[in-house]
Amino acid sequence: MVVFKVSRVQTTPFDGQKPGTSGLRKKVKVFKQANYLENFVQSTFNALGAEKVRGATLVVSGDGRYFSKDAVQIITKMAAGNGVRRIWVGQNGLLSTPAVSAVIRERVGADGSKATGAFILTASHNPGGPNEDFGIKYNMENGGPAPEGITDKIYENTKTIKEYLTSDLPDVDIASTGVTSFSGPEGQFDVEVFDSASDYVKLMKSIFDFESIKKLLSSPSFTFCYDALHGVAGAYAKRIFVEELGAKESSLLNCVPKEDFGGGHPDPNLTYAKELVARMGLGKSNSDGEPPEFGAAADGDADRNMILGKRFFVTPSDSVAIIAANAVESIPYFSGGLKGVARSMPTSAALDVVAKNLKLKFFEVPTGWKFFGNLMDAGMCSVCGEESFGTGSDHIREKDGIWAVLAWLSILAYKNKDNLNGGKLVTVEDIVRKHWATYGRHYYTRYDYENVDAGAAKELMAHLVKLQSSLPEVNKIVSGIRSDVSKVVHGDEFEYKDPVDGSVSKHQGIRYLFEDGSRLVFRLSGTGSEGATIRLYIEQYEKDPSKTGRDSQEALAPLVAVALGLSKMQEFTGRSAPTVIT
Q: Which top EC class is given (predicted)?
């Protein structure tokens, strides 16, 4: 057994190592600075405290982006130096973010060990490569992201750190499964490399009726396409969709994980998932042949999803509402009923209407999955979602892209159980339109202005807050832009009091609420690695079934004009158009 020594390395703090709701994200070149990653990791160990670190089992893996393999080795050596007992690594350093959550919650080692936390190496849906983004976040023993109390401590520690602990362990082979054992000052230290997919696949099989989905996928009348955008979802797609569910291998697109995501932007939306969008008949030019009945895409770390029907886009806000409305009859895991449902504040109110009709507990929370996690840990929420292509349930404490795809396939399998031998197929579009007819339609769009000057973005937000002090003035501006838009009846900055722990989250987005149920929401997003991203959310509710079939951008055009005029978007940012529209 190789013997290792522990050493203390002197270091100095870096500016701006503040983890957001999604951890710390910066350009690779920033992470590659001497001691940058080490400072953050040691600050995390110090925030957790020796009692949670010494003797612990921790997971270290991620989406496989550039610099991940180096980071696995650095963190492993530091874990040994800090008295951790064992490290679990997904083969080749690959584990999706939902799979990490599942491994923490479900996996038991050969010696009975259970993980109590994880370093997840991902910058989510941001690009990868030597000149692109890297990220790291810590998840707790419930499988969910570290709460603010811990991330605040990490940040404070990064500002004062003077040394970190590491060891002279040799690099561990993470390409082959198996256990490598070492001996150090505090005894044995193990690194176990395990199959990335097995625990997650087992969990999915316990939630869904794989036999009914298999019947759907093997039916000649149903065609399917899944695009991993060269992210970590590729490590699960073949195992689940092809080997377990019998889909053709040709139905998988870009399912080989790559360090640079094949040079693409691993964000599953209509702008970046170009190949899938074209195959589904939604591209600017006509696709070759008949599009598949169902298509889906994942982001870099496989926690986000996009759902498409043939020539039909399902908004994430509609998706979570439709899953909630159909979960009990379609998904065995929910057969006993839903405990409650929740959405992030910027997400459309489609889920609210379902909750009201089905008499379910309903929660509106700030953006950030940890808020859902609190509700789930308290047994108050079963299904939840965000407009930013994140959907999930209480099976883990992260959003889960493949889970959402399997949920949709379950609904389609249930609706078509009598149609697979020649009957007319109930399509994705049919399900969505029937949902609108039952619950009404929430026309919805999001405008993203990426890499805006941070100072200009803050000025724009301050302007919007100031405007709210006089609603008559706001309505004067609104009617001057479009006389056919309803009156603003309320304006505020969203604030949330957690019903579980009583914590209060302020300044969570600026809202303008209209008399007819329409909404404008403005938020600064922390998911980019440079500049600021302004997100503008525009929503209009339509109950009249004869008016639910309009083109979304056309229906929302008056509200869009009001939003851009009210915020003085071009004046503050210099942008005449958003970077991305979803």
A: isomerase
Are 283 and 406 found together in one domain? yes
Are 208 and 113 members of one domain?
no
Query: 224 - beta bridge partners?
Result: 294
- Distance CA(473)–CA(432), nearest Å, equals 39
Separation in Å, CA 229 to CA 128, 393, 556: 12, 23, 30
The parent domain of residue 484 ranges over 441-581
Nearest to 318 by CA among 438, 493, 490: 438
Question: What's the domain count of the chain?
Answer: 3
Q: Cβ neighbours of residue 152 under 8 Å, at least 6 residues apart? A: none
Tokens representing 468 are 């709210």
Judgement on whether residues 294 and 404 belong to the same structural domain of the protein: yes
**Which residue is catalytic, options 43, 101, 124, 212?**
124
Q: In what side-by-side order are the strands of the sheet with 488-493?
A: 488-493, 510-514, 519-525, 532-542, 441-452, 580-581
DSSP 382: S
Q: What is the side-by-side order of every strand in the sheet holding 362-365?
A: 362-365, 341-344, 383-386, 390-393
Would the CA dihedral through 350, 364, 314, 252 be positive or negative? negative
pLDDT cut 90: percent of the chain above it: 88
Q: Could you tell me if 218 and 192 lie in one domain?
A: no
Whether 423 and 463 map to the same domain: the answer is no
Residue pair 218/420 in contact by the 8 Å Cβ criterion: no
Judge whether 319 counts as a catalytic residue: no
* 77: amino acid identity, one letter: K
d(C-alpha 118, C-alpha 95), whole Å: 11
Q: Could you write out the DSSP letters of every residue in 312-331?
A: EEEPHHHHHHHHHHHHHHH-
Nearest to 444 by CA among 347, 376, 510, 333: 347
Compute the distance between CA of residue 467 and CA of residue 472 in angstroms, rounded to an integer. Answer: 10
Counting beta carbons within 10 angstroms of the beta carbon of residue 519, is it exposed (0 to 12), middle (13 to 18) or buried (19 or more)?
buried
- Final residue of a domain: which of 411, 439, 467? 439
Summarize the confidence of residues 287-292 as an average pLDDT: 83
Query: 370: which residues sit within 8 A by CB, 6+ positions away?
Result: 21, 144, 145, 146, 147, 148
Are 322 and 416 contained in the same domain?
yes
Task: Note the pLDDT tens digit of each residue in 103-153.
Answer: 999 999 988 999 999 999 999 999 999 999 999 999 999 999 998 889 999
Out of 173, 196, 219, pick the residue that ends a domain.
196
- Whichever domain contains 242, its CATH number is 3.40.120.10
Same domain, 167 and 278: no
The SS3 call for residue 168 is: coil
pLDDT band at 344; cut points 50, 70, 90: very high
Structure tokens at 75: 């963190």
Strand order in the sheet with 224-227: 252-253, 224-227, 294-298, 305-309, 312-314
φ, ψ of residue 225 in degrees (nearest 5): -150, 135
CATH number at residue 461: 3.30.310.50
> What would the DSSP string read from start to end of 402-424?
HHHHHHHHHHHHHHTTTTTTSSP
